[in-house]
């Protein structure tokens, strides 16, 4: 499973049908009992607030996450409709409605037995270009943080071969790690309903419960709390809360720009395995070697000898969330020394130590730390300047990954505007991939092109060392 721009999706033409989620609750019943409403998570509250403020300022700021995948044979529409309804009933967050109450953002989920799907025939599309344009337009029009429902779903049906299912989500109800779960849930349910039986899947905890627990634990956090000591230590070395992207992007302070969305394969499967071997020999994990290589590439291009960046980390390990849909992501700062004179083993040791220190603060919510330690920036609708950001995900370890060669799932991220750059790295059976969204300026295009080039060569050089170390000694 890879992540790349929707414009790069190779999708065959066909007949498009969409399903719209509808509440069957009678209007006089209102939004449900107050006791059923819970506080939104810190991530959800900030996201909702940003969109609220953007609308007040007539700012068209928008974004979405999407996933596409194949189902074998002619489409069984009844089975797919049942599978889509099963997904919405299985994950409480997908039935949520958000509302401001006394300044706090609350969410209430419509009961699972009070939702239904309406079928909408969208017509025949004769070319891939027309189909991709329609999907992009549909995602932008239907995904709205301030309007329910917060996700949409459809399929491209064909008489022969496979059919394509597509779904798009607002970030407020989902994260990137949820995309493989969505695919696995629907594929499992679709296969079951085609055979006339009920699907069987592992328990998926509710994100609303996770959010409620998180807010209960950290809403009372104060700036002098020792649980913020790691953040304060990072800020002391960094000089500020946000770690700046160290290379020039050619932007004006405070300005937002249209985005570029690019994806590349950095290493093939053999090279990726060789790099992993080298990382293990150095006492680290694959992502540590990748992060060390990113730091080396930035330093080679003029960045500092101390890598400082933000790293999103999954919070699913604290409970029954492995198979859940929601925004289970915290963002933490990491730092380590990087320099041309350092051996790879030294770099790995630095990353390993930095990661270990970072993980000691995993449960402190990023949004809460931001609000307490950088209040001068908290009201902004985006980060105050380009931020150094690194994200990695091993798609081979996700639910249903063994079926990805047949299902052909792909993830897509889109944002209308940015003031910096974000890069996501994914590993799958074919190798290592990179997807970047960044400001569309001439200097940013040159900079990001250089980053990709230098990073690829750095990774390949390290991978070659891994291959050499695996070769048996010559027999004299």
Automatic annotation (TrEMBL):
The record's GO molecular-function terms, alphabetically, read:
catalytic activity; phosphopantetheine binding
Domain Condensation: from-to ranges: 63-366
Q: Which Pfam families match?
A: Condensation
Per the record, what is one GO cellular component?
cytosol
GO BP field: amino acid activation for nonribosomal peptide biosynthetic process; lipid biosynthetic process; secondary metabolite biosynthetic process
Indicate what this protein is called per its UniProt record. Condensation domain-containing protein
Give the species this sequence originates from.
Streptomyces albireticuli
